[in-house]
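Dig into my protein:

:::
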Amino acid sequence: MKKNIHIILISLFTFTIISCAKESGSSSSSTATTMSTPSIADGNYKLTALSVIIYNSDGSNYGSGTFQVNHSSSVTPGYLGYGMSWQGSGVYRITVFGKATISNNDLGNETLDCTTNSIKDTTLDTNGKMTAETIIQTGCGGGVLELTLESDTYSAITGGMTKVVVASNSSYRYQYTYTFLKQNTTSSYSTAELEGTWKSSCVSSGSRYKIRTFTVSGTNVTEKWEYHSDSSCANDEYSYDSTYSSLSIGDALTFDTYGSSGGSGHKLTMTIDTNTYTPLSASDVTWNNSNSWCGETDWVLNTPQSIAGKTCGSYTKWNTNITIYGVYALDGSTLYLGLSSGSYPSTVTISDNNSQTKQ
């Protein structure tokens, strides 16, 4: 195969492609029936193999090749992959994460760094073909490849899934087959051990006192931080409330990882859907409006207002539709939890101020 054919894999992997084919069977077909039940199980999938067949414009076979995939352990979770989360009505929320170099002596190589995740809602038809795509978060770097996307098809296989991409330009037609293996497939990686409500006692937090409540229902999560002016947490001041979806449990951990012992936990990821602040006292409303808290001057008692992406004091609050990374540890009925945006927390605090008890 000629060595002057250099295929840009980044765009094919994350689909920043400038046009889509209109013919029957393409990603923009208007006659496709939307997938009603998920064909691929939720979870994280590691890219394990990649091959390509190249055709000339007249349909004759130009050549084929396979690529070597070298995953980077320096970027969490240590491999390049897809996170698949069924949203219903044919839609998967697909998160591309990790880092790897994909190489072939004849076709060249590309490094795909998804430290900043790419997140898209992808609609599939009953055959697993993409019919629509909505960008939730751009990521993974890369450029735009001037190809016409003819089809993008997802299929379940034993232990994982395949993604077959067909794209073309005026000279060549490319058929890429990506093979993924599902990670963390054992039952211990389900959300079951987090199911229910976890609540802290009334603990000090600077000049105030707080109660943190974390509730898991399947892959949906709600979180509340209630702040109070007294050590009994009887006098409400304000609360921060967030909701999340697409909860996925990742690699197993032990307390030893974080300087303690006895007990276990996991990494987790989820998507933040709402992020609000609620004034719970008249004095808090007055102070917020006088000081333009979070850039707003229309605060109302007991009325939540979105603070997604806003700067509140010295902190910029999490925006919606981004991946939140977590690490948790369980010690019987006690949960210790740390959450972060962008990457997994390096530690989880094992202390009374960061403990929540199963209700």
Remarks:
- The chain has two domains: 9-183, 188-358.
